[in-house]
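Kindly draft a sequence, keeping tokens residue-aligned:
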Amino acid sequence: MRALARRRSKRRPSSPAAEEVAQGNEMLRLGKVREARAAYERALDLDAKSAEALNNIGFVEETLGNAESALRFYNRAIRVRPRYAEAWCNKAVALSRLGKWEKAVECADVALKISPDDPVALVNKGVLLSRRGSHEKALVFFDKAIGRDEKYALAWLNKGIALSKLGRVDEALTSLNKALVQRPDFPDAWYHKAKALLLAGDKEAARICMERALELDPGLAEASGGEPTTVDEGGPES
């Protein structure tokens, strides 16, 4: 299960480099990854210490499946700005993708020390705990994240997954439905709802939910025997 989220802040551009970062974010939103990367590189040409540009190049690399490369850029961003919570969150994601879970937990803890109420950092810590089987402890972090942002679909999703693992199926379905209220096109929520419905013994409803999940993301078929890869709900920093 990888339900870690990457962090996006909403600071307005305040320099030419920041303008390029904002342009890159817009390109990325449109799915123009190469153009986004080029804009971030221009930002670095204007300001070699742009932590946002470094972080966002890491985001692009990670989006392309280059976790090792992404990690190098996140580390550079952190060297420029040691208390950069977004970069610490993203570093946790990259490390988790590389299977370095202990180090990922350390990064999640750093992010929480910097920004204790950040919903993204809270979800990341919860996911990492759940990954290690500490589902009850993970629920504490998911609930804190929801307390900060009750519309945070990824928090509801992960809460539902943890509750399913604990056998609390009715509660799990409630959480997964809340995730789907926020994001009706969230394939992972449909997938895990199908699994919870199977646990509840409702095979027909489970079949319908699984069909919807696969319609939204055919790639989930490869994960049908285990945990799917969930969507990182965050984005590049602007």
